[in-house]
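To illustrate the input format used throughout this study, we show a single complete record. The first block contains the structure-token representation of the backbone; no residue identities are included at this stage. The design step must infer an amino acid for every position from geometry alone.
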């Protein structure tokens, strides 16, 4: 495969899970990329209408109808259309569980994660190559800084994003949405590369332990940490997040986030593989600094100290 821009090396053999809700504009773009890749099996999951948002009724139905009416390639289609709104935390996690009840491995795309075509074949090759490696828990399509100082096509990171990703059923089986209730704080300190990263991990853990934060992906991060699981990230970014600032976004609400500036490109085939599995500490440190600038890092540490003081006061009162 001596190619620079992607010419698909073969038909895609890997199933895709497409996660939808009420954003037609972004869903159309991501669906077009899926349509071009022509996965042989397409799983479509969509959360139900929120009772307090009457406009959801039409928006959700329009999104479902658009996707279902535009599947024009030969593929097996399965749907999971929720009748009631479960929220991001339960709708997404249950959809992924449903997906892996049918598939040994697969690719997962949300309706705001726009992939380049090489993303699909990159995931497929990594899924096949590393399916029997216990240290590898997922494959990500997003590389926010593209600082890979070696000659390989990817690196191994603790911080796998869920903006376009893939994994295996036997790895997802370890996922527990309530992991925050029984994971120990001490487990986290052996992995981070900076003090602010340690603080941030502990804040994340405290948040999902003590609040009803509507998220599923922090639990996936903690699952990987618990099992010493790494994520494969491409040497170039393969995903553009087109959901930032969208009126119906759940978490990506900022219009000024630095990650908006991350450009995407195509990975070069043939893939250049590693001779050993080793976490890239330099990449993870650079990534954390990129995502959390100096002011953000100071705020994180201050927030952590306040949290420790608050917990101490609560214990003393008891």
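Output of the design step:
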């Amino acid at each position: 495969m001596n190619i620079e821009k992607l010419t698909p090396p073969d038909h895609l053999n890997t199933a895709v899970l497409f996660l939808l809700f009420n954003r037609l504009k972004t869903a159309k773009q991501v669906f077009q990329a899926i349509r071009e890749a022509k996965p042989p099996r397409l799983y479509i999951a969509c959360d139900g209408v929120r009772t307090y948002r009457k406009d959801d009724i039409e928006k959700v139905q329009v999104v479902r109808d658009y996707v279902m009416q535009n599947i024009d390639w030969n593929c097996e289609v399965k749907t999971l259309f929720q009748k009631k709104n479960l929220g991001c935390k339960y709708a997404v996690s249950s959809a992924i569980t449903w997906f892996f009840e049918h598939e040994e491995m697969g690719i997962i795309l949300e309706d705001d994660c726009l992939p380049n075509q090489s993303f699909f074949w990159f995931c497929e090759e990594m899924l096949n190559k590393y399916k029997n490696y216990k240290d590898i828990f997922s494959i990500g399509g997003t590389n926010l800084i593209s600082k890979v100082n070696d000659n390989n096509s990817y690196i191994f990171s603790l911080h796998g994003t869920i903006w376009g990703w893939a994994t295996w059923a036997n790895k997802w089986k370890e996922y527990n949405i309530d992991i925050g209730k029984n994971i120990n704080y001490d487990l986290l300190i052996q992995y981070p590369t900076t003090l602010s990263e340690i603080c941030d991990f502990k804040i994340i853990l405290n948040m999902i332990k003590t609040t009803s934060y509507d998220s599923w992906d922090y639990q996936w991060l903690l699952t990987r940490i618990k099992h010493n699981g790494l994520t494969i990230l491409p040497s170039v970014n393969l995903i553009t997040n087109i959901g930032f600032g969208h009126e119906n976004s759940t978490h990506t609400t900022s219009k000024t986030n630095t990650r908006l500036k991350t450009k995407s490109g195509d990975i070069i085939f043939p893939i250049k593989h590693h001779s050993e599995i080793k976490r890239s500490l330099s990449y993870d440190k650079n990534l954390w600094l990129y995502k959390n600038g100096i002011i953000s890092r100071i705020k994180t540490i201050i927030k952590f100290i306040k949290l420790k003081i608050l917990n101490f006061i609560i214990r003393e009162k008891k």
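Structural context for interpreting the output: Residues 44 and 79 are 5 Å apart (CA to CA). Strands lie at 16-20, 41-46, 76-81, 105-110, 113-115, 136-140, 154-157, 165-168, 230-234, 239-241.
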